[in-house]
């Protein structure tokens, strides 16, 4: 560098260090403020009592109001009491204060079954059954434990894991990924320094595959346990086994604002329940006087009413899914444009990928004389004048999801349209108002048919409380429930555990991979229906993941358990690797794993049908999806404009395509990676030759249930009732040993939606008697193994 260069640099350097000092000062001030806020949280008053309870009990079931500080504070308390520091094999369990002064904030919760005495009952109740949970521990093969140094905090959802981790890192004044980190599927923001790790429950379950004793962790916190996701329930069963094996070296905390603590205390030997009393800010709950005919309209009205009448504060609206959110966004725009000038000034900011859309940037005030006065009036009463509509749902790319967490620009109110992704754990800065439609999309499973479906159903009371709890986190809030108080009282108290209403193939596969062979005997807190487990065993057998004695096969089962996709899709990928069409199979699996890519507006049916023709394949929907994927991938990646206009011309959902591309990229890495959990499989392409791909698809989806015939039809071979049909399938021929169809089910998603139609149409054809007579000896073997295992207990 010459002197001259140096001189040129100097002022910049000085400016930079000046900026840094200012930034440092601002950051320090912010931390001081956050620190003061933290100390006001109800959880703080309970700190010493909670730590003392955890010294004495291996399981703590903690109930505390939404916003009381469970998710953000408890892990920090544990860390400061040395629960999250390893090496000695004892850590805080021996050294931490064994009681301290109780501030009276926490109490053993009478009526919730939380006393140590009652926990003794739990011991007895759990006595004879935990054989399989112990098997889990044994499967660790004597792996060392005692070195656990980390605190894991599970969340049912990725967004919560990410955002809460960031908040806690900020509270602790560290960079995310250092002392505090998070891990979600395909994204690990942790380091060797990490002591508090927020993660999805599904990810901790995956970790248990390779480390069944969870030996990295001194404490596991299962947060939002009331949600009873399938992953949480399996984890609870596994952890029970881990506790038995690791003894005093391991602690479990189960937390929620809306939890039946007694159930958990009964389930875990020696558990104790505690209640954190009090909430930070009040939330006023308002009900409608009469039931609403159309909750979507009612939600729009309520949002606009809040925007027009209420002082500043963002609105969080709970809807059921992406389609509904898209409609709500459009309706809000339309309604805003028809409002009087004062309210109309609020342009509605479009979704982030539509820059320049009408309303963006809030130019509405320009040139409207009356509007300026109205704006002044709104400002005078502290009402924001613009409304910025932001969606958030699971299929939205993460960078767009994060937009809801950014503060609204001055003079603007955010209206966040969310699915239940925003229902628990998270704090969205600025939200003071919640609009609860009272509905949610929920999974259901028909074990008889092996079909999963999604249906819009009323929320439970616990969900309604969680939703209201998203207001009142930074100040007093209001929750508008779009149903009557009497309807609320009729709602189920809690949501039934997901494990009792979903396809269990993945779960069964993972348990088998952990060495738990007797899945029917696994110590579930709420055992799933027996038929559902049997159906999963049959499916896994049909996929080649289990042998006739119900054991995991090395070649298929073990590798499938490592693939982070549905076992049926995973089987396609394994088959494709052997058939030289891995690239195409990955594309198809990515497309069916993303949301529906086709946009089918009713008013433009002729147009979208015409646009669809160029992608259609006579060989089936999978090949059609492959054509769409190839078309998209041919566009220049860096040109957002080209991609957007191609999607819009072809009536294709760009968000779903981005998601598919993302899944594809991640799976390519995963499949090709030479060391576990990667599979090190070659990824060849079959080009325009489609036969290998069709073979691979058949192998994955219906290996023994159907065989592709030379003429392109499928033969359905009897394997119990494990048959997948499309509602438009046509029965070509009825032979003595099989039925011949032109087309079979192509994705789990489609059959999910059409489960009822399929049942009505095909069940008589697929009568149990027909299949019972033809059931293969091998499938019967799996059932016999399952039945034998059950009988042995
Ligand atoms: N990202 C954030 N920005 C601003 N404040 C936050 C943030 N995260 C948390 N807080 C503050 O910390 C408080 C406690 O949050 P925390 O998530 O720990 O509560 P909780 O008891 O776990 O609630 P819930 O049961 O709803 O998950 C919130 O009420 C809010 O005041």
TrEMBL record:
Region (Disordered): 1-38, 90-150
SMART domains hit by this protein: DEXDc (SM00487), HA2 (SM00847), HELICc (SM00490)
Enzyme Commission number(s) of this protein: 3.6.4.13
PROSITE patterns hit by this protein: HELICASE_ATP_BIND_1, HELICASE_CTER
InterPro entries documented for this protein: DEAD-box_helicase_OB_fold (IPR011709), DEAD/DEAH_box_helicase_dom (IPR011545), HA2_WH (IPR048333), Helicase-assoc_dom (IPR007502), Helicase_ATP-bd (IPR014001), Helicase_C-like (IPR001650), P-loop_NTPase (IPR027417)
A GO biological-process term: positive regulation of transcription by RNA polymerase I
Compositionally biased spans, kind Gly residues: 90-103
Keywords from the named record: ATP-binding, Helicase, Hydrolase, Nucleotide-binding
Domain Helicase ATP-binding, residue spans: 51-277
Coiled coil: none
Low complexity bias locations: 122-140
Reactions that this protein is recorded to catalyse: ATP + H2O = ADP + phosphate + H(+)
Domain Helicase C-terminal intervals: 299-515
Entry GO MF terms: ATP binding; double-stranded RNA binding; hydrolase activity; RNA helicase activity
GO cellular component: nucleolus
Protein name: RNA helicase
Organism: Chlamydomonas incerta
